[in-house]
Structures are given as C-alpha cells and as structure tokens.
C-alpha cells in the first residue's frame, strides 16, 4: 500500500460568502460542491478545486459563523500551498495580488521552487508554488470558466506544512505507518530554528509532500477562523482504504473507523502531536449527484441527509453560487 499524495485540505471560515468570493473570484478556483458539514448540518461545507474537483485539487472550508480568530501555534497545519503551472504564472499572480490588494510577500525560492506566500481575508496562510520543475504527481486542469486565464490557473494542492513541538512523534507516524520517505530539508526563516524537513509519498513532487517544522518555542495552536482543520491523503479505492484501517487499528491508534462521505470514503485519526489526518479514496467524485456543468450551484446533500433537506436549509444563511 502506498498513499498517492495530498487528497484535500479542510480549513475554517466564519464568512461563507466572502470565502466564496475570494476563492472563486480572486483565486479563480471552481466551487465544486456546496454542501453541509455532515457532522454538523447547520453549517456549510464548501469545496473548491479544478474543473472536476479531482482528488489532489480540493481545498475545503467549514463555515463556523461564530468562530474566533485562529491563534497560530505548534501542533498545527500551519500553511497550505497551491500549485500553478510554471514560473511565468508566478509573476502573473504577484501582479494580480497587487491589483486585488491581497496581502502577500515577495516572490522567493523554497526547496528549489518559485513560491509566493499570501493570506486570504481571514488570515489563512497560503502559498503559491511553481510546478516548473515538478517530476511527481500531475496537477489538475483549471476550469475554463475561471476568472483566471487557464495557463495561469491553480492546478491543485502543493506541499502542506506541519508545525509541531516534537518532530520525532510526527515522523514516527508518517514514515513507519503511512510510508512517507524523507526527501530533503531547507533552512527555516526563523533565526535559530532547525531546518524544515521534507517528506514525500507516492510519485512524490509538489502534490505529495509534507514539510515538517519543529518549533519548541511556540504554544499549541488554538484553532479558529483562518486555521486548518485537517489534511487528507489519497487512497486508491475502498478496498485499499479498508486495508489501511486494519493497519491503523493494528498500530493501536484511536480512529474513526470507516466513514462514508458519499463523494469519497474516509478514515480519520490524529498523529502523535495531535494533528488530524484523514485517508480518503479518490472516488466516487463530485459529479455523482450533480451535472458536471453545474457543480456547486445549488445545495447538494448526500442521500442519507436528503430527507432532512427542508430542516437543513432553514438553518443555513442563503449563499448565491449560481453562475450568471
């Protein structure tokens, strides 16, 4: 068994409307599913991705309207990165961020790739990375109706940064149980801190990396809006997922057991620093209950929630995502 790469990352927003505007109108991602948090149906769960919401391109948000701001710290998913096609696209994005007044840093090099750190309106820590030299997991296909030209569009999730108090604990889980392998390291931007270690899985490359930062000087994160809830890794199918469940349970790691999310099947557990991991199947996908041309335009509910549609819709603040 081998994990294929990053499947999705799920974060927290307090403002679904503004979140939708930023990720579709500024970043040009496609809203591929407007649904609800299956564990709390009173709040939206928004999925953004490439043209079809292929595994490895999905950035999702739970709306928690009363969420306080995130208090950044250790034992957290401290940065999400998004892939673009090449270095030329990076220059396009720097200019776009200046025009749209998006908070961002200067273009820089990180682990041999051009990158550009930026934040959304709630302080979510994000980074664009260039796929110019990528030799690993292929990216997705930007939506042709995006607000961003297709050649410059976001093609998927890049490396995910974990900031932890005790690096060895996370390393034990990702290498000995999940099968990640060490790829390299690069210097921390924080003076006096150890190098950031890079691990990869599957075909490797930008779509299959975890970057592990050790920060013993930081208190644990207090999760809120602008923070990240969990990261999911790609599993080929349900049969393989059930093998992973046996492996995780055999290692005596507390876990959710098999969970059917309808659009994919999942397993949840926490690594030894407390960060929530998910293993998720590549399919069935997001066109199972909506026409591909109209993904995300109306509230989609999996069959086991459909009988409660009226009750669910009554609790949600209307969010217009129909395309003009």
UniProtKB/TrEMBL annotation:
Domain VOC: 5-131, 156-282
Official protein name in the record: Ring-cleaving dioxygenase
Species of the source: Fictibacillus marinisediminis
Molecular function terms, GO-annotated: dioxygenase activity
Keywords assigned by UniProt, alphabetized: Dioxygenase, Oxidoreductase
SUPFAM superfamilies for the chain: Glyoxalase/Bleomycin resistance protein/Dihydroxybiphenyl dioxygenase
PROSITE patterns, A to Z: VOC
Stretch forming the signal peptide: none
């Amino acid at each position: 068994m081998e994990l294929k790469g990053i499947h999705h990352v799920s974060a927290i927003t307090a403002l679904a409307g503004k979140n939708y505007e930023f990720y579709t109108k500024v970043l040009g991602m496609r809203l591929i599913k407007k649904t609800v948090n299956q564990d709390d149906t009173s709040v939206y769960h928004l999925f953004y991705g490439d043209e079809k919401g292929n595994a490895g391109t999905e950035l999702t948000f739970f709306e928690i309207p009363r969420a306080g701001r995130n208090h950044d710290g250790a034992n957290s998913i401290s940065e999400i990165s998004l892939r673009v096609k090449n270095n030329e696209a990076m220059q396009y994005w720097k200019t776009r961020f200046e025009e749209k007044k998006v908070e961002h840093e200067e273009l820089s090099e990180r682990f041999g790739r051009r990158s550009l750190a930026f934040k959304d309106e709630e302080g979510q820590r994000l980074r664009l990375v260039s796929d110019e030299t990528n030799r690993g997991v292929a990216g997705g296909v930007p939506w042709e109706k995006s607000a961003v030209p297709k050649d410059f569009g976001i093609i998927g999730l890049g490396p995910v940064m974990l900031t932890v108090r005790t690096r060895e604990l996370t390393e034990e889980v990702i290498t000995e149980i999940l099968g990640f392998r060490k790829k390299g390291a690069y210097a921390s931007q924080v003076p006096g801190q150890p190098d950031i270690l890079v691990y990869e899985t599957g075909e490797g490359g930008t779509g299959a990396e975890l970057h592990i930062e050790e920060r013993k000087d930081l208190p644990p994160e207090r999760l809120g809006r602008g923070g990240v809830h969990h990261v999911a890794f790609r599993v080929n199918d349900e049969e393989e997922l059930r093998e992973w469940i046996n492996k995780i349970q055999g290692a005596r790691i507390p876990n959710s057991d098999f969970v059917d999310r309808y659009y994919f099947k999942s397993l949840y557990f926490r690594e030894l620093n407390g960060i929530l991991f998910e293993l998720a199947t590549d399919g069935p996908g997001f066109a199972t209950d909506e026409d591909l041309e109209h993904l995300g335009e109306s509230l989609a509910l999996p069959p086991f929630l459909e009988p409660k549609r009226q009750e669910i819709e009554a609790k949600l603040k209307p969010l217009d995502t129909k395309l003009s």
